[in-house]
Amino acid sequence: MSDTDLTIHQAFLPHDDHEASLAFYRDTLGFEVRNDVEYMGMHWLTVGPPEQPGTSIVLHPPAIDPGITDDERRTITDMMAKGTFASINLATTSLDSTFERLQAGDVDVVQEPTDQPWGIRDCALRDPAGNMIRIFEVK
Questions:
Q1: Which residues contact 40 (CB under 8 A, 6 or more apart)?
Q2: Is 114 helix (H, G, I), strand (E, B) or coil?
Q3: Given a cut of 90, is residue 20 above it in pLDDT?
Q4: I need a labelling partner for 36 at 20 to 30 A (CA). Which of 1, 29, 47, 135 fits?
Q5: Closest among 133, 131, 129, 108 to 17, alpha carbons compared
Q6: pLDDT at 27 over 70
Q7: What's the rounded Cα separation, in Å, for the pair 25 and 48?
Q8: Distance (Å, rounded) from C-alpha 122 to C-alpha 90?
Q9: How far is CA 6 from CA 3, 31, 46, 54, 57, in A?
Q10: Which of 137, 105, 127, 139 is nearest to 57 (CA)?
Q11: Which residues have CB under 8 Å from 129's CB, separation 6+?
């Protein structure tokens, strides 16, 4: 038994198109929008699964930290374009039906459902900003 009461509250992913991210996370994945903030021309979205009200994904403008150099901003932009900057793992109890539903929404499929040699079955896709989303089947 652990003495900690820590839980995962928020994870952060960059986005570079508010409307595309909103449509993807709300309409395609079925997440609820918990917050939609516009400030000085930038948009932050907070989304999450309806069944997990205490866990959210914050979709934020990339490289807004004032401590980031122009070279670092270019690197972040390049990595986002290649899909190598950020990722998140999601889970479902029915990978094949979830994949079918998502594929009907015209997602950017990276890997169809596959039995991995380490014992997990998963698929992979990208969100509109290029973030890698892997979906694992859990029982």
A1: none
A2: strand
A3: yes
A4: 135
A5: 129
A6: yes
A7: 8
A8: 10
A9: 9, 23, 20, 12, 17
A10: 127
A11: 13, 14, 15, 16, 17, 20, 21, 59, 62, 80
